[in-house]
Write a structure and sequence with these properties.
Blueprint: H1 12-16, H2 28-35, E1 37-38, E2 45-47, E3 54-56, H3 58-68, E4 73-75, E5 84-87, E6 92-95, E7 109-114, E8 122-127, H4 138-160
Parallel strand pairs: 1-3, 4-6
Antiparallel strand pairs: 2-3, 5-6, 7-8
Amino acid sequence: MHGGLSPRLSSWSQMDALRRPLDPEEHPLAMDLLWSDPDQYTQGWARNNRGVSYVFGPDVVKKFCREMDLDLIVRAHQVVQDGYEFFANRRLVTIFSAPKYCGEFDNNAAVMIVLDNLVRECSFEVLKAMDNPPKVRARNTLQRRSKKVRKRRSRSSRKDV
């Protein structure tokens, strides 16, 4: 999932019932799945300081995993220093794949590698940000290409005359 859990979620069929595309603001369950966050200092559920959805404690994760027959919940959505971070006795993991997020954080990124048998066996590859990343100039490249095309077209139209 992107964000986390929801106090409204009690069965997989509820997630199946969310027909896409959808406007999350019209579906409280979707908002929670997108924006809720784990919080080690919370027991149960509390309002999220983002102003949207909830934070949930380790007790919620353990109960959800037990009731939904899950070994591990994998989510994203929050910057974590090492690219991945476990929560609730390794029942939930946050993975973040953007190093030096927005140029404002000094975080690593990570990808999760899941083995074929999917039996709680996974590993992580941590990716550090490049010291001098290449600058992407797709817009300028497109502008240069369109100028070249216009020049070629004008040359070929002159030849036709």
